[in-house]
Amino acid sequence: MFETKEFVVQSIDGDYANLLRIDIEDGAITPVARFLLPMETDEGSRLRYENFEYNII
After folding, report:
1. Residue 8: which of 25, 26, 30 has the closest Cα?
2. Least C-beta-crowded within 10 Å: which of 16, 35, 50, 55?
């Protein structure tokens, strides 16, 4: 079973989005290539990472 993680998009910088993990108290910011995210992802979007895939929640 894979771990589910939740993020909010803090900022978008070119081909990368900076994601803040929000499902744990001391979440870190992680840069992720935009091609891995849903097309409609924008700053402030909430995302769930599950089964090697990001989805907007």
Report:
1. 30
2. 35
Contact 21, 6 (CB under 8 A): yes
Residue spans of the domains in the chain: they are 5-56
Phi and psi of 34, rounded to 5°? -60, -30
pLDDT tens digits, 10-19: 999 999 999 9
- 């992802």: which residue's tokens? 41
| HSE-CB of 26 using CA atoms within 13 angstroms | 0
Structure token digits, residue 4: 């589910």
* Cβ–Cβ < 8 Å for 53, 37: no
